Amino acid sequence: MTVLNELPYSDHVLHLAPAKLPSAAPVLKSAWTRHVLPNQPSNCAASVLVPVLDHTHIDLLQTVVPSLQQYAGDSCQVNVLLVVCARQNVNTTRVKGAHDSVRIIQPEVQLRWDACIRYGLQQALVLDSETPHVAVVAASLLPLQGWLSGLVSDLQQHSNASAVFSKILFVNGTVKAYGSRFEQVYDDYLARQVVRPVEMYAGYPWNYGPTMKTMAVQAAGCSAWLMRSSGVNKLLEGGGFSLSLGSYLACSDMALRLHQAGRTVLVSPLSSFIDTATRTQREDPATMQTFEQTWGPSLEAQYVSGLAFNATVTWVMQCGGPEGSQAFNHVQHLEGQLRLRAQVQRGWPFCEHPDVLQDMPFSFSERVYRLRRLSAYLPSDIVIHHKDYRQLAAWPWPPNNSSAYLIGRYSWDVDRVHRQWAEQMRNEIDEVWVPSIWHATSLEQQGVQAEKIFVVPNSVDAHFYDPDIWDPLTLPQQRRLSFLTSFRMDDRACWQAVLVAYLKAFRDNTDVSLYVHTGTHPPLPYRRDHVYEAMNRFLRGNNDTYLRSVSLYPRPSSGVPLVYVLEHELTQLELLRICASVDVMIVPTRNDGWGVPYMEAMSLGKPVIATTWGGLADYIQPDFAFLVNFTMTPIRTSDKGLRGAAWGEPSVERLIDSFKKAYDSKDLVDMGRNARSRVIERYDNEIVSSLVLERLTEITESELSGNRSAKALDMAKDQIPLDVVMCAMLPKPHVRLNRTTPALKVAVVSTAPPRRCGIAIFNSALLEYLQPLLPQGSSVEVFPLIWDTEMPALSGSAPTQRAIRQENYGDYVSTARAINAEGFHAAILQHEFGIWGGAEGSLIVCFAKMLEVPVVSVIHSLSDNLGDPQQYILQNLAASSKAVVVMSESTRNKLGAFHGTPSDNVVVLPHGTPVISAVNPAVAKAMLNLTGRTVLMTNGLINPMKGVDLVLQALPAIVEEFPYVLYLIVGEPHPDCGTPCANYFAELVAAASDHRIVNHVRFVTKFLDDRVLLQYVQAADIYILPYKDRITTNSGTLTMALAAGKAIVSTPFDHAAAVLAGRGVLVDFDSPVSLQDGILELLRDESLMTKYQREAREFLLGHDWRSIAKGYASLLANITMRS
Hints:
1123 residues; alpha/beta; seven-stranded parallel beta sheet; 34 helices; 18% strand
């Protein structure tokens, strides 16, 4: 590998996954070489520690070590100390090209990260006692020119600084680390809120404004940093690197110790490294608990002292689209200044507008997710509803009859609002936020009280939309002057007027280009040729002779100015890059509530062609815009919500004139500069966030001081299926507690064998152990949920159970009557949306409300991303249940944080597991003819989200190093999945025929009874769960593997992330390289495998089915007891 001393080229792919280890230097991008190098500092010398641990790529040291010396900076001296704390054999001959100043030091015993660094620092002070500085650099980092001189320069210029950290970049050139700050987060392991360090700028461009200046930070990661040797000695004497906190929290601990001593910690833009790590490092929960015990109380006090007020604010927002984007912008600078929560109905990638979070920098989207997870802690004092009015009552905040101060954030783009909006503003909410004076005036004209209306403008991140950080693209066929237009081909867009004006303004002028970004409406697969054909069709039907003669595609007419339709619907980031590469922006709409694309173009320093209709009148000015007249016209559209309103029709003649003026103008650069200045002064995220904070502070001081009465919300506005509404509005009968003896009669509604379903298996296992634990004389009856056309079993006696046909409403009614009339004391309802009838499974709510006995609802799968109907169902089911059972604290938090369900009646009872005795894998292998093989195993019904294909891709490198490895794939294609699963299984079989792995893969597809399946699990050395589904909340196979004491490698889906941190290996989603590294980590380290096996078994103690059934028995006794 070769290393360049400048920043690498890459388009900014900001939602990051670790990249493959680079094998060659990336191509340079000229504009990225503007890396600011410091003036040469005096006394630029350092002992540089490079820790070598078990996961270190030794071959990479051949590049890293010489590069540390070569690119340190002019006249800088580097003495490299390889601190070998692993079992690997490292010598200087393996580090080719290393200077004589490279030494290897190795403790007598293997050390973990903190102890390794402490040992290295102690040795450096002894071996290089005259060297003024000590640095630590991770072995995966490749330095850029001047890395050491930059650190030394900043340290010398800031006399109160004790440590300076480098900027760390991903291989695509975006920021990985540039300092941390302490924020409130939800900790799955501790199952509560804590204050932890979070990265501030991960995923932003390397030259993002705030990261281009030296900054004092609260903390930082441990990848690369420098201290004075004298400061290192004091740090070690004070206990630094003595708590076994791992490679991230250890430096947060160091920073806090330095802050306690009155010293400053800096992060420097003058020193940068590229991180080549191929796998995300995750902290051990034990280290996080140690950090919490050491610093938790003081960090919590520090967090509280920084709040502007003590009230809790919940911001309800869409996951994407214009409104979601604006809400994200507003909260960017509010975190840490108030107790802020976010309610987001769906998360990326399931968002209805995935372009927003998908494309934004990682730390931006991570902030939204972090705030979202805090929302379980009810209630909120202030609720800001930044969504469509139709969802104000529906989902999920505020609860009906809430006393919270309710703010509605509204925006619209026609001359009036819908009557329901106006009524809602007048009667149901406390305060209205609108983006412009035009919106405020419109509301006053419709009778909304003026004292309720506040103008809170939309905003943009002027640092991100900065023309100086984006290299212009060379667009196809770009001419002297280029325009960009962006619109959706619907009634609102006025693309026809823009097209006519452009063609007429530049008739016989081929020195211009118009780039068209569009989408179809309703959303259909994007076809560039269809867009061209729509334009040609419009031109052919025009009355103008010239326009009728124009063809844009496939062969443009001679002498016609270029109209270039872009190849696909652009993501937000792609649109930004193209906007930065043109001269003028125009957005052809008849209705502009605010015009976010204009604001973003202005921030990028682009003049615009625009009307001053609607919210644009607040900020569009002639010193940076070519203004277009408009005429108010009645709306003619298929959108029923706009009937009776009017919008502004732009003047074609003025559009023609504006195009010509733009072409003739010598002032476009100055106009763009004026546009950007206006954004920076008034509409940057930080500016608008300060306005929001000021108003919220006023509310807490004036509106929340006294008692507030609860208010009811009109649920009739919600656009959800009728049967969901009907079930939700059914009255709940009085619950009878009619138990007079200890004996219990329990009804259970669930899928049941022979239906092959995880819930059926769960329910059967639970009841097997529950029934013997109930008081004498108790009974349990199962009412199975079946398909309406389900066939009887081919053999055996006829079923005696009273079944509920899934879509037969009469069966639900008759079953509820039977339970109410036949002396049952309680009902257990196993819930998953797909097994109950009605729209989205709504009949479970109807059924629960028909029951006159206490209901226990057991929630199995809880997605992060539920639609409005599913939200309603979940909330109404919880409200109709005496108890709601979930299987982890993480799921309890999600139920509140993501789905607006208070935790008052939520009980955590984990997924049960059979008692699995410890068996020597060699014995189990002998019974299955696997003797001598190292067995990897994945088990379960096979479907494309199982991720087995990723393991097959990782396998060649694994078997090359460990030739006795055998991968067992135990399971058949999922029966409910049909053709997609069958095809996927066939693809797996084909992939396994690769000559490199054909003798290392075995499929076990026949149905296995529990005894044989257990033998396979006991025979496995490593259990692999490579799931692609991020939102699997409960995995029976994971629970079984833990109970069997297996070393587990898994992607961090919800259940795995909650239980495997510190007890197994978590690898990145959709990454064969990460899977490969995770599996090899265990195969290479037998002691680590043994540790994980022991901790897995210990974690599941008390999770056997009998213990879990005791919890259910106690719960049933409690809810059926007369108070």
